Amino acid sequence: MTKHFINLDDLSTDDLAKIIDNAIKLKQQHKAGEINNTLKNKTLAMIFDKSSTRTRVSFEAGMTQLGGHSLFLSDRDIQLGRGEPIVDSSIVISSMVDAVMMRISSHEDINTFANNSSVPIINALSDESHPCQLLADMMTYQEHVGNIKGKTVAWVGDGNNMCHTYMQAAKAFEFKLNIATPDGYKPDQSFTEKYANCINLFDNAKDACTDVDLVVTDVWASMGQEAEQAKRELAFKNFQVNEDLMENAKDSSVFMHCLPAHRGEEVSAGVIDGKQSLVWSEAENRLHAQKALLLYLLDK
Ligand code: CP
Ligand code: NVA
């Protein structure tokens, strides 16, 4: 059966752990200058209807490092963007490549594409979730701190696609998740119901961060919400991750952000550029985590 990676919990906890362990090995291998051509003659199609720096560069460089090839397909250039049906696009593209990575706004469209594809589909950010980022985040925590099982994580800010994926990660990796959002910006109810046993909802960032091991945030206005920027700046003004807020977390706590970040909005420069921040490692690990994901999906 074709394996897909649409949501983090499409995979068992065991498989997620194996991917992360392999990612750490692939990183060491790459740093040691060893050549890995496991995906020689394989092609990854990368479909985007939104901007990207990390996702595009990491998948593209990752395919090169594994001896394969990647194709950047913007919806401005392919017929999908001119209305060719998702089903037709999936049948055709999957008949020519070995895997497809999609950054498409509609999570439903990614599901439809996957249901009609003969090759693995990877969700590289939808309106609902961002599972590739969580592979990198969990790898980064493991590398820098250790096992996340039994720890407490605080999500501060918008109950968005990243927050949803942290909820899925809380279940898979068995950590507690405190979620602090302003009124009106909670995660989707379908998620709060499904992951109720792993989460605690707060309307106050300080309470959510008390004694936690990891603090995570994301932009206040995600891609596609630019028109709401001013309204959101007001709603989120008490939800900035800054030095004062980090005081409530454990002394040993660390900070993560999927990036891109807005210093002075969701995070202060002092925190993101400070000692507790793991953001550069987290970004770099997208590369190795996704190489391990590709090898897993392609049974290599
Ligand atoms: N974190 C992340 O997915 O970054 P990009 O939007 O730059 O790909
Ligand atoms: N929540 C952000 C994440 C970007 C990587 C967005 O959807 O724009």
Characterise this structure.
The relative contact order is 0.16. The chain folds into 2 domains: 8-130 and 285-297, Rossmann fold; 133-282, Rossmann fold, CATH 3.40.50. Helix content is 40%, strand content 14%. The mean pLDDT is 98. The longest helix is centred in the N-terminal third of the chain and has 19 residues, at 13-31. It is α/β, with parallel strands linked by helices and 300 residues long. The protein binds phosphoric acid mono(formamide)ester (CP) and norvaline. Residues 52-55, 125, 133, 258-260 line the site of phosphoric acid mono(formamide)ester (CP).
Helix content: 40-55%
Largest sheet: 5 strands, parallel
Element-level helix/strand string: HEHEHEHEHEHEHEHEHHEHH
**Rg over C-alpha atoms, rounded to the nearest angstrom:** 19 Å
What is the residue-averaged pLDDT? 98
CATH class of the largest domain: Alpha Beta
Helices, strands, pairings?
Elements: H1 13-31, E1 43-48, H2 54-65, E2 69-74, H3 86-94, E3 99-103, H4 107-115, E4 121-123, H5 131-144, E5 152-156, H6 161-173, E6 176-180, H7 189-194, E7 199-202, H8 205-209, E8 214-217, H9 229-235, H10 243-246, E9 254-257, H11 269-272, H12 279-297
Parallel strand pairs: 1-2, 1-3, 3-4, 5-6, 5-8, 6-7, 8-9
Helix pairs in contact: 1-5, 1-12, 2-12, 3-4, 5-6, 5-12
Bound molecules: phosphoric acid mono(formamide)ester and norvaline.
